[in-house]
Amino acid sequence: MLQLIIFSTLNGVLYGMLLFMMASGLTLIFSMMGVLNFAHASFYMVGAYFGFEISRRIGFWPGFFIAPIAVGAIGALVERYGLRRLHRLGHVSELLFTFGLAFVIEELVQIFWGKLPVDYRVPPSLDFVAFRLFDTTYPAYRMFMLLTAVAMFAALLAGLTRTRVGIIIQAALTHPDMVAMLGHDVPKIFMLVFGAGAGLAGLAGVIAGPALVTQPSMAASLGPILFVVIVVGGLGSLGGAFVASLLIGLVQTFAVAMNTSLAAIFGSAAPPFLGDLWQVTVAELAPIIPYVLLVLMLIVRPTGLMGTRET
Prior knowledge:
- This protein is an all-alpha fold.
- The chain has one domain: ABC transporter involved in vitamin B12 uptake, BtuC (Orthogonal Bundle).
- It has 13 helices and two strands.
- The chain has a two-stranded antiparallel sheet.
- The longest helix has 32 residues, at 2-33.
- It is globular, with a radius of gyration of 21 Å.
């Protein structure tokens, strides 16, 4: 039991921090521009593929630094020559644009890399056992993923609260007109924030690619969970996104590890209104738990855990 708790906690925190790496950028973009970017998970996928392509040519570590920058540059171009032109037409046009962009990116990935998973491997320098507990090993690369995510969170927090650029960005989130009157180029700030958000998603893809499966469907599989995170945490709340990411990561990881059903706890005799659900294990229900949490949050607290605006 102790082994299950320790390793499930580590994996849950790791999964939660990966979610936050993407949710943080999406939260900043929504706070500043009011746009829920449906293509945000696609930048995560592009980061994984860029990391794979660079790593097989010049090594993992150059890809670790170059791929997120390249994805961020693509994101900045998308905002400059796409979303900025649609902003005057309203949020519906922006949503449709990002929705279509997600499909375009997925098709481009399939054209260049095919429909099958690519062989994106853990680098040899990190391919060893970090520690052993109760005859179970924990890979060093997973610890690297966790430390990278924590370092990103610390850098993002320090950048937004301790630097002049961060203060300007925070001011632009709530009072863009006043920031413009002070002489700052608000459209350029929007572009840089959108690019930075895409870059964070790309970084998540670079470090998650070798540990998970790098394939064209990886964006579609993670995108819905990403929107659950920002709604549960509160639209526009960076702190809420952090708490919600960890909450969903831990809840889903522990749920996957549990093979207990109601029948095992209360006996095989099922109430008439439950039927076959009485025999279903918690692990089998794990994929829908985040969405159940989303529905409950919308019913009980539409603003989310730490949000100030309703969904």
